[in-house]
Specification:
319 residues; alpha/beta; 11 helices; globular; binds cytidine-5'-triphosphate
Length: 319
């Protein structure tokens, strides 16, 4: 059986640092794009050989107990103890157990969403995934409001909530968490040692204020498994971004997958400037050697999957 060709060639992909957005013209255009069901199913099957989103989306209560020691995935020499709060917030069963959705939206955080008018379209999908607690209320016209799952890297607490230095910032975070209103909050707590306190603060806030969210903490093997899948398909990523992780997980429970806000380039297809994030002033950093991400390379892979009908990328305006 034919292999899924993801990077468009049989030779190992190289990191594309050119940032020339003109090279990334998305074809077929929105109206002509057709979903390829056979290919989507084949990709789901292949990914299942590496991970199972239903299981790997979160560590479950039955598998850990308070006081257990965990080695961080990227800092193997550093450890953390499973706190009582973390244990209390572990789900008993997978939040994705037996879940299947006709269409899913994964919303990345690129500034390409600004003035896209995609909000309404995004909100029509059966399941909407967002990244890193990105704000929605003030940008609803372009990004929508519906949120079924949102990720939160611990660094977000520092970047967007001033490390909760005072009551005002704590209140801001609390309001954002309350607004999630029953959706899944996905916290990669076991990746890097830097996030230890931040994860604890958030856990404490959720418990203390009885915030209505369903917390999930990805399994210890998820990251390597996702990387393994892409490497096997000759996509030579260093560390998968949140966006790519979400796509890889979504293949398990989504029939059709629509991506918005994935555009890791400073210029759009018409050569107009694009902000790195739609909501803040963070600058492009992924080209530095130190950055663990290879976003343009990931984008190339996603573009190839768009061309083959396995997913749909929207990088301009919605109709
Ligand atoms: N993204 C993109 N183009 C951008 C910004 C983000 O394609 N200009 C996608 C990436 O897949 C990214 C996701 O949107 O993972 C969410 O963005 P962000 O919150 O910025 O994630 P990062 O913090 O950059 O990366 P990570 O959380 O994976 O470390």
């Amino acid at each position: 059986r034919a292999e899924v060709v993801i990077n468009g060639s049989s030779s190992p992909a190289v990191v594309d640092r050119s940032n020339e957005s003109i090279k990334h013209n998305i074809q077929p255009a929105s109206a002509k794009w057709r979903h390829n069901q056979t290919l989507s199913l084949r990709i789901r099957k292949q990914i299942l050989k590496f991970l199972d989103a239903e299981k790997d989306i979160s560590v479950l209560k039955g598998t850990l107990k308070p006081g257990d020691i965990i080695h961080y995935i990227f800092d193997r020499d550093s450890t953390m103890n499973v706190s009582q709060n973390l244990y209390d917030l572990l789900p008993r069963t997978s939040p994705l157990k037996n879940k299947h959705f006709r269409t899913c939206a994964i919303v990345g955080n690129s500034g390409v969403l600004l003035n896209s008018g995609c909000g309404q379209e995004i909100d029509t999908h059966s399941f909407v995934i967002r990244c890193n607690l990105a704000p929605v209320q003030e940008y609803a016209r372009d990004v929508g409001l519906k949120t079924d799952l949102v990720t939160m890297n611990p660094s977000v607490i520092q970047r967007a909530f001033e490390d909760l230095v005072n009551a005002t910032w704590r209140e801001k975070l609390l309001q954002r968490l309350h607004s999630l209103n029953g959706s899944i909050l996905w916290i990669p707590a076991f990746m890097a040692r830097g996030g230890k306190e931040r994860v604890e603060w958030v856990n404490e806030l959720i418990l203390k204020h009885r915030v209505n969210v369903r917390t999930a903490y990805p399994s210890l093997r998820l990251l390597h498994a996702v990387r393994g899948y892409w490497l096997t398909n000759k996509v030579h990523i260093k560390r998968p971004t949140t966006g790519l992780l979400m796509y890889t997980l979504a293949t398990r429970f989504c029939n059709q997958i629509y991506l918005y806000g994935f555009w890791p380039f400073p210029l759009d297809q018409n050569q107009n400037p694009v902000k790195y994030h739609y909501y803040d002033s963070l600058k492009y950093g992924y080209t530095s050697q130190a950055s663990p991400h290879t976003m343009p390379l990931e984008f190339k892979a996603l573009k190839s999957l768009h061309e083959q009908g396995a997913l749909k990328l929207t990088v301009g305006q919605c109709d």
